[in-house]
């Protein structure tokens, strides 16, 4: 999860600014590869963590995560066209990269240092 939290914002920046300044087509494609790798790696790490943590209730934990991910996929197209029209591709993807850094980068450290304490607070975790 540590490398994935770095890949996602870097990919957003490469994609956005590569599209903004009309570079060769491979530059935004490289950015999209990094974005995709960051998303998939993060998603796989989160799923593995949830299955290992909530063994008996793993299906419910994965369903809740999938529901949250699907709601984000529903909401993003509602504001994305307006955001990109107002900011352009470079600044719009920079905004997404900053959000990914603010939310994503602290998460692995929080789970690394406080994961056991967080898990112990749940009544659904098997000790």
From TrEMBL:
Alphabetical list of InterPro entries matching this protein: MFS_trans_sf (IPR036259)
A GO term for molecular function: transmembrane transporter activity
Membrane-spanning parts: 30-50, 62-83, 95-114
Source organism superkingdom: Eukaryota
Annotated keywords: Membrane, Transmembrane, Transmembrane helix
Membrane topology of the entry: Multi-pass membrane protein
Locations listed in the record: Membrane
Gene3D superfamilies the UniProt entry points to: MFS general substrate transporter like domains (1.20.1250.20)
Protein name (record): Major facilitator superfamily (MFS) profile domain-containing protein
């Amino acid at each position: 999860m540590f490398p994935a939290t770095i890949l996602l914002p870097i990919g957003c920046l490469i994609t956005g600014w590569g599209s903004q300044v009309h570079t060769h087509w491979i530059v935004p494609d490289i950015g999209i590869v990094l974005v995709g790798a960051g998303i998939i790696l993060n998603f796989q790490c989160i799923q593995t963590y949830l299955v290992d943590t909530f063994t008996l209730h793993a299906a419910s934990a994965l369903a809740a995560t999938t529901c949250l991910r699907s709601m984000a996929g529903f909401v993003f197209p509602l504001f994305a066209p307006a955001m990109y029209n107002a900011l352009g591709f470079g600044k719009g993807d920079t905004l997404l990269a900053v959000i990914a850094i603010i939310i994503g980068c602290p998460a692995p450290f929080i789970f690394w240092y406080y994961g056991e304490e967080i898990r112990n607070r749940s009544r659904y975790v098997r000790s």
